Amino acid sequence: xxxxVRDKIPEIMAKGGLMPVTRILASQDRLQWLISKxxxxxxELTATPNLEECADVFEVxxxxxxxxxxxxxxxxxxxxxxxxxxGGFAQGVVIRxxx
Length: 99
Fold this sequence. Notes:
Helices cover 61% and strands 0% of the residues. With 99 residues, the protein is mostly helical. The chain has one domain (9-86). Helix 2 (27-47) runs antiparallel to helix 3 (51-67). 3% of the residues are buried.
């Protein structure tokens, strides 16, 4: 089984006496692996809703944006523009869509 991990995880594992087998993803494969990782991290956040899990989801979303060629500043500006135009999710508004 292979798993996408944070960049320093192999080093941390080695310091703990483990010798992980690693490979670096080809650039054309990274986006799909990151999207899959986002699903994994979202499940972890669902199971354990806390700041650490939110940070993991945030880090993966940032990595996806970077892979798509956007900077963290561009991502933040785009999110703010959407929030100004359409609002955020703070109020918990739910609509019913029929038909």
